[in-house]
Amino acid sequence: MSDIHSINEAINKRAGRKLLPSILVSVSLIALIWFALSYHREIFATVVAIAVLLGIREIVRAFGIRGTYISRNALILASIALSYSAWNGGVAGLAVATAIAIPILLIQLLTRGPEGFVASATATTFSLLYLPFLGGFLILLGRTSTGFERVMTFVVLVSCNDTFGYIVGVLIGKHPLAPKISPKKSWEGLMGSLVFTIIGGMLAFKYIMSFQWWIGAIVGLMIVFTATCGDLIESAMKRDLALKDMGSLLPGHGGMLDRLDSVLISAPALWLALELVKAWT
After folding, report:
1. What is the pTM (predicted TM-score) of this model?
2. Residues paired with 182 in a beta bridge
3. Which domain holds residue 183?
């Protein structure tokens, strides 16, 4: 037992997070998504909206630590409106709701006067676009009649990227990918993500989506790029705000934003790819 404990501690130290809690949380989230999509797709949209709201709580707190004000209540109301619009109005509803929400949020900030307005307006607009707008594409993936297949394909792609990038990086990672932003991320881990996400994309597109396998390979390559960039964007935010994690909600992951980082950037990419495939086939 002591040997197993020592190995686990060594993995945790090298990876920068606790392995077993991370695995349990990931499996639980996948099971929740599976249940929501299988039972009623509206439940999935609600789960996404709740995840976005939890992310908003974290990002408001993070900016607040640096003295940048964001109206949490106003941003929560706007997020609920964007999620509702995405589910009922599709991409057009999401776009119009975002266009309406931004000026309303800026007008609301005027009530505080001019001091700090630019910083607050920038942080508020960024938070709206980063969380409810990008998160809205997860809802768009799940709202169609093939929502189950689309979302589970997305889960396969992102899971392959995160899981195998993590495993390969822990086992043989030596060359930092972006040492100033994310010291634990390595080129070797990126190669692991690349190989296994392409394979996962090929299998998912052939057996879940019933598309040609080579489409899945191309989309898998795209997801590695978007998911890695999403991870680095969130890491850059944490370093700029002097935070280790955005929160402590999810054991082994940190906060909700630490779990959503690769998802938020990848969801619109997969949505666009599937729309293009649908138009061309």
Report:
1. 0.88
2. 178
3. 146-281
